[in-house]
Amino acid sequence: MSDIHIDDAAETAPRQASPGEMLRREREAQGLDREEVAAALNLRPAVIQGLEGDSYEEVPVAAYRRGYLRSYAHLLGIDDRPVLEAYKARFGSQETEHRITPVQVTRPPSKLGAWLFRLVTVLVIAGLIGLTLMWWQSRGGSQPPAPGNSGPVSVDSLDGSTTITEDDTSGDASLPPLPEEESDLGLVEDAPVVDAPDAAGAPAADEAAEAPAPTGDESAADDTAASDGQAATEAEPDTAAEAAPEAGSPAEAPAADRRVLELTFNEQSWTEIFDASNERVFVGLQEPGTTARVEGEPPFRLTVGNATGVELVWQGEPVDLAARAGANNVARFTLGE
């Protein structure tokens, strides 16, 4: 009978709570959740859950377990001794230390490797830019011509002669002097107009020499006639000189078109034109099928890309651009010197 009473007393005795259960009850009594406790202790929520469930897989080292339990108890404001005694009673003081698996730390790349990567990237970008420029230049005359790459340029002057000049590599060479208007008029004034009265006077002198000597009255009449003839002879050159500009007026009609250039673009071309005042009167990349009319003071300094696909008319006559084009199909020349 007494044995049965002792067994009932043992069964009714309160079971000692585990350390995790003590901490969990106090946390719930204070209205805190695991995330708040984990943030306050600077631990992961999984570690807090393991401490409350008496599962220490997240904390393999016994010294760390006791330290975490002590910190948890201090955070809740309770005495840590009952918690540690419950832990000791449940797990003992001598525990097998679990071997900690070393954590492999990935080292960041060295500065030398970063610099090498940047250098390779820059070289690749520079190579792509160079290939793009080479491809653009290989298209022909569609690109703006580079200065200093053209060969000799032949220039047709107004008198019909052809002059071959070297293109200035700097592109800023002074323009050739304008032709003087007196040189054009000199071609007309040099005509042998004045010699006509002299040629007509030669037979008259011969006839006068063959005629018999006149008498006094005849001599006076002859002197009067001779003076009249001399006056007429002197008047004839003046008349011829006045007629010379009038004769030259039809030749000046096409000269009025010397200020006009007409261009027809059959293919894409980059064209630039300067006039005598070194003023750029025309520039741009022209599309196929377009035309342009340019006015300025000659001589003109032209740079025509893709010259074989462009037609140029000046003073009503076509200008052969293909003959003036260099190896890169770009024509650089001066027109109207």
UniProtKB/TrEMBL annotation:
GO terms for molecular function: DNA binding. The keyword Membrane applies. InterPro entries: Bact_Cytoskel_RodZ (IPR050400), Cro/C1-type_HTH (IPR001387), Lambda_DNA-bd_dom_sf (IPR010982), RodZ-like_C (IPR025194). CDD domains: HTH_XRE (cd00093). Residues 262-334 form the Cytoskeleton protein RodZ-like C-terminal domain. Gene3D superfamilies: lambda repressor-like DNA-binding domains. Residues 1-22, 140-182, 197-254 are annotated as: Disordered. Keywords: Membrane, Transmembrane, Transmembrane helix. The keyword Membrane applies. The chain crosses the membrane at residues 115-136. It holds the Pfam family HTH_25. This is Cytoskeleton protein RodZ. It comes from Halomonas ventosae.
